[in-house]
Write a sequence for this structure.
């Protein structure tokens, strides 16, 4: 079941509800607009490994058993809610996330590169964010009340700017590689900062 986009046209979806499929949307084409929609109770909510430019605005990705969104390249996401999935968002390249809520997933964000996460709330996940790759920017975000780790950042040249990392039950942030962290508030975690692998820059 679900929707398979295999190139040829620019797809637009508005006010849709996609439920109970193996993959809710399988996007193999270049451009897609998805807005005001809910992708829920699928095995995988959205799969976009071969897609390039797409825009997702004010959508819910919830209760998908494996992934909320998987393999999304060059996507722009605004005001989305990614909640109660196995893994919320995974294997992203060149994505931009603005004003999104990522909560109650096993892992919120996993294995990203060249992705910007701006003004997002990442809370109540088992692991909030596992960067895994490199060159990501996390800015103006709240990473709060995750169960084991708020942020796990050990890639190359990641940046964490002006974030609040609070009330995480285990480690607020595990940091390493050539990561730069600046102007962040880190408080009331069981362990605030764990430094591993090379020497990050913190100021």
């Amino acid at each position: 079941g679900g929707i398979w986009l295999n190139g040829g046209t620019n797809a637009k979806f508005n006010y849709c509800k996609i439920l109970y499929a193996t993959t809710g949307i399988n996007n193999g084409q270049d451009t897609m607009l998805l807005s005001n929609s809910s992708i829920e109770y699928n095995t995988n909510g959205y799969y976009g490994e071969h897609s390039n430019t797409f825009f997702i605005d004010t959508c819910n990705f919830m209760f998908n058993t494996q992934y909320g969104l998987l393999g999304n390249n060059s996507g722009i996401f605004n005001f989305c809610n990614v909640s109660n999935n196995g893994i919320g968002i995974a294997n992203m390249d060149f994505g931009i996330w603005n004003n999104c809520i990522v909560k109650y997933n096993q892992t919120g964000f996993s294995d990203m590169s060249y992705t910007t996460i701006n003004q997002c709330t990442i809370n109540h996940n088992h692991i909030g964010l596992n960067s895994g790759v490199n060159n990501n920017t996390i800015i103006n975000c709240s990473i709060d009340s995750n169960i084991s780790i708020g942020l796990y950042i050990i890639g190359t040249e990641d940046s964490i700017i002006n974030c609040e990392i609070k009330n995480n039950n285990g480690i607020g942030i595990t940091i390493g590689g050539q990561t730069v962290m600046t102007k962040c508030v880190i408080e009331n975690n069981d362990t605030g900062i764990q430094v591993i692998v090379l020497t990050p820059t913190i100021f």
About this structure: The mean pLDDT is 92.
